[in-house]
Amino acid sequence: xxxxxxxxxxxxxxxxxxxxxxxxxxxxxxxxxxxxxxxxxxxxxxxxxxxxxxxxxxxxxxxxxxxxxxxxxxxxxxxxxxxxxxxxxxxxxxxxxxxxxxxxxxxxxxxxxxxxxxxxxxxxxxxxxxxxxxxxxxxxxxxxxxxxxxxxxxxxxxxxxxxxxxxxxxxxxxxxxxxxxxxxxxxxxxxxxxxxxxxxxxxxxxxxxxxxxxxxxxxxxxxxxxxxxxxxxxxxxxxxxxxxxxxxxxxxxxxxxxxxxxxxxxxxxxxxxxxxxxxxxxxxxxxxxxxxxxxxxxxxxxxxxxxxxxxxxxxxxxxxxxxxxxxxxxxxxxxxxxxxxxxxxxxxxxx
Amino acid sequence: xxxxxxxxxxxxxxxxxxxxxxxxxxxxxxxxxxxxxxxxxxxxxxxxxxxxxxxxxxxxxxxxxxxxxxxxxxxxxxxxxxxxxxxxxxxxxxxxxxxxxxxxxxxxxxxxxxxxxxxxxxxxxxxxxxxxxxxxxxxxxxxxxxxxxxxxxxxxxxxxxxxxxxxxxxxxxxxxxxxxxxxxxxxxxxxxxxxxxxxxxxxxxxxxxxxxxxxxxxxxxxxxxxxxxxxxxxxxxxxxxxxxxxxxxxxxxxxxxxxxxxxxxxxxxxxxxxxxxxxxxxxxxxxxxxxxxxxxxxxxxxxxxxxxxxxxxxxxxxxxxxxxxxxxxxxxxxxxxxxxxxxxxxxxxxxxxxxxxxxx
Lengths: 351, 360
Fold this sequence. Notes:
The complex is a heterodimer. By secondary structure, chain A is of the alpha+beta class. Chain A folds into 2 domains: about 25-165, CATH 3.30.1330.10; about 175-340, Phosphoribosyl-aminoimidazole Synthetase, Chain A, domain 2 (Alpha-Beta Complex), CATH 3.90.650.10. Chain A has helices at about 30-45, 45-50, 85-95, 120-135, 190-200, 215-225, 240-250, 265-275, 295-305; strands at about 65-70, 80, 80-85, 100-115, 140-145, 155-165, 180-185, 230-235, 255-260, 290-295, 315-320, 325-330, 335-340. In chain A, the strands form 3 sheets. In chain A, strands 8-10-7-11-9-12-13 form a 7-stranded mixed sheet. In chain A, a hairpin with a 2-residue loop joins β2 (about 80) and β3. In chain A, α3 (about 85-95) packs parallel to α4 (about 120-135) and α6 runs antiparallel to α9. The longest helix of chain A has 18 residues, at about 120-135. Chain A is globular, with a radius of gyration of 23 Å. The relative contact order of chain A is 0.15. Chain B is of the alpha/beta class. Chain B has 3 domains: about 5-60 and about 170-245, HypD, alpha/beta domain 1 (Rossmann fold, 3-Layer(aba) Sandwich); about 65-170 and about 255-300, HypD, alpha/beta domain 2 (Rossmann fold, 3-Layer(aba) Sandwich); about 315-355, no CATH class. Chain B is built from 16 helices and 11 strands. Chain B has helices at about 10-25, 35-45, 45-50, 65, 70-80, 100-105, 120-125, 145-155, 170-180, 195-200, 205-210, 220-240, 255-265, 295-300, 315-320, 350-355; strands spanning about 30-35, 55-60, 85-90, 110-115, 130-140, 160-170, 190, 215-220, 245, 265-275, 280-285. In chain B, strands 4-3-5-6-11-10 form a 6-stranded mixed sheet, with helices on both faces. In chain B, α8 links the parallel β5 and β6 (about 160-170). In chain B, α7 runs parallel beside α8 and α8 (about 145-155) packs across α13 (about 255-265). The two termini of chain B are about 30 Å apart. The interface of A and B includes residues 269, 275, 328, 345 and 347 of A.
């Protein structure tokens, strides 16, 4: 028998230092464990997560629990002013905060596409950590699944937020009342235009940055100066017009906007003009609508303007009793028109 | 924003509206040709600000609206083919054919892409040599230069995988059809300024002489629109029959002659069916035979597709100025932007969609 040559033999162990996501990262075995200990734990470090159990054990202050879930599938993953990780944290923090609650904890579920560079995941996770730190929330539980190449767009993130709502505070779209004024915390449409431009399909560039931001501190500042805030809502997909329509229908009131007071950056206005979009329907990720009794409007406006993300806050309209369920706009020329919900996807016009 | 904000100045608009009020002495009916103008009028509430004597009726100038149903069905059939990348202007995607729209073709696996310019469709064809790339070339004279440019470019590049599904229409024959109808109510026209920017207005004097209706070439911003209305009212009150250019910053008598020359190289006049109106002689443009290689109707066998409109829809009468969207029994009931029965409800430039969206 010939001598067996072992010099070229290799042991077929899984590659653990792979620089991209492979199916093994979702196996639940050693590679999954590596992903957790090398990427997620160092970033999100906190006792509830590091305990390594199947669920997080959390101490909660007094009050009522507020829960909200949101899934994020934005493309591209990175865009001027933010990325999918930042969005996933801010979006859920904001959904909890607009209930009047203090957001405390988040969970994060990741769906990763085979072939995703680990560096991309690291950047997204780092961005989530920064947003969570700014908001003052902890990411206490997570999950990772890997799907075959072509079955996801790189990376999807789903986050659930937990917050505490003090007894006696009631914030709801159904509480809008005649006599309330409508405050918007800043410029409309920045996120939608920034993401559209980042896709690069339309062949234009813009300096517009997404407004993606955690709004819990801004909202806390407003709630600290007024007990007469009736509605808080973040006008994300569908924009300010769609969100106000929801509120008008929920509360059975009429909301009238003043066209001249609507805050739109010149770059967003001109992009919308060119594409045939209306900034009222373009998404925001760092803005809140505040419906507050008229007597407290100035106080709330001043409190918002003193915060990092609220310095451009303005009154954009007011609430009246009728016609119920309608959003109207007083135009610059003194005429009035209806501002309806968006029907389906916003489409560029032919000419 | 230069060249836009100036033309939305409330004080200037108010001044022209005042002049209209001072000039008008009796009822007049005028038609704005273009759907973009209808949209602006309703969006800015200009119709509410006019004296009650002036009635605006909405013309047929929405290219999405007048594209016949069977042409849309042909587009859907082509778009559903696995070897095709179908490209279109955005607002064509939601227009229902007889069974579905381009969105649902995309949901079922067809490759449908929105482009802002037909030249982008040519680039897609260059980048995807193994696919047939088809552009849905619809529109009035306004979009024709870009559409013919795409065909010329594809020819120069010797592309074998690019074609256009043409459904082009022209304004003057539609005006002939409206003015020649025994039920015509239109006494004056606001001409579609962007069409005239390309074509000039040398085609319009024969219409003026034959039908004796004054016309004002009108732009799309609030100040342009009230200025066009004012010029038309002045002519009507004085009994003058002329063409006034109230959009001189964009329109000359001759128009854009290089563009017209290119259009004539690629397109020739043909009869065209208008959705809701019917066939208007010589009202369309189609590809000249030497461009047959770029004709999607010839490349894909879709010529035999024939379809029928919803019997409830009165889009044709609306586009001829005979009826208003409210006169339709289906308006806001069976027919809404979510479930449109006719194209005037689908396109943002359609009169029904504008009325619905802005709550008229």
